[in-house]
Design a protein that fits this description.
DUF674 domain-containing protein; alpha+beta; DUF674; five-stranded antiparallel beta sheet; about 240 residues
Length: about 240
């Protein structure tokens, strides 16, 4: 898995209502949002802990607790609990969810053209599939064996709304959003640049399953803490 780095977002905050109206984002952040949809749901449940809405966590725990006595011989419990994420390996995405297995290898025997993604699978010819091979084909973001995995074009600024709707940033899209939230004066908006790293990635995922005010819930408390600390420091300097 590639080393985790940070990307920046420029938040446009409605200071009167104390909410994020939208964020200006680059390719890296939008690629990450789209990458989430490429992940098997089993990779997400452990990250959510007890904050899951619904009963998917119960299914996950049932698999973890069921005795192998009740599973068919060819069922690997770990493959259900820790499914592979095909799209992220080698993509160069700067943001990744923690503990998500993203690499994938292919194996074959020396006699057949069949391939498997599990080491030492017995081939139809009876031989063990223990020779690593590679998929060769046209790189594509939708190809599960591709190492490309980037989704949107660079050198474009994207608008990401509070509920994570994404579209290219334009004057029309901004005015439409202002009209929706009855924002009459651009002066009520405050710009704030925030960094998105591993902690924020997990918070974004959790919030996206619980609310439609994701950016507000994740980032505005951080902004408030920074403002409070700044005021406190200024007051101490004035004494």
């Amino acid at each position: 898995m590639a080393a985790v780095t940070k990307v920046s977002l420029k938040l446009m905050i409605d200071t009167e209502r104390r909410r994020v109206v939208y964020a200006e984002a680059g390719k890296d952040f939008v690629d990450f949002l789209f990458y989430i949809l490429a992940l098997p749901i089993g990779t997400l449940i452990p990250l959510l802990d007890q904050e899951m809405v619904g009963s998917l966590g119960n299914i996950y725990n049932s698999i973890a607790n069921v005795s192998t006595t009740y599973l068919r011989p060819n069922v690997n419990k770990e493959s259900l609990l820790k499914p592979m994420a095909y799209f992220s390996g080698g993509t160069g995405l700067p943001l990744h969810l923690p503990n998500v297995e993203s690499s994938r290898k292919l194996y074959m025997s020396c006699k057949c053209l069949h391939v498997s993604d599990e080491f030492n699978t017995i081939c139809v010819c009876g031989r063990s599939m223990d020779e690593e091979t590679k998929y060769i084909g046209t790189p594509s973001a939708n190809n599960p064996y591709s190492s490309v995995g980037d989704y949107v074009k660079g050198k474009v600024t994207y608008m990401v709304t509070d509920d994570l709707a994404v579209k290219p940033l334009s004057t029309i899209s901004v005015l439409t959003l202002f009209n929706k939230f009855n924002i009459k004066e651009i002066g009520v908006l405050e710009e704030k640049v925030v960094d998105v790293g591993m902690d924020e990635v997990v918070k974004l995922l959790k919030a996206s399953l619980l609310t439609k005010s994701i950016l507000t819930d994740v980032f505005l408390s951080v902004v408030k803490e920074e403002v409070d600390c700044s005021k406190k420091g200024k007051e101490e300097d004035d004494r």
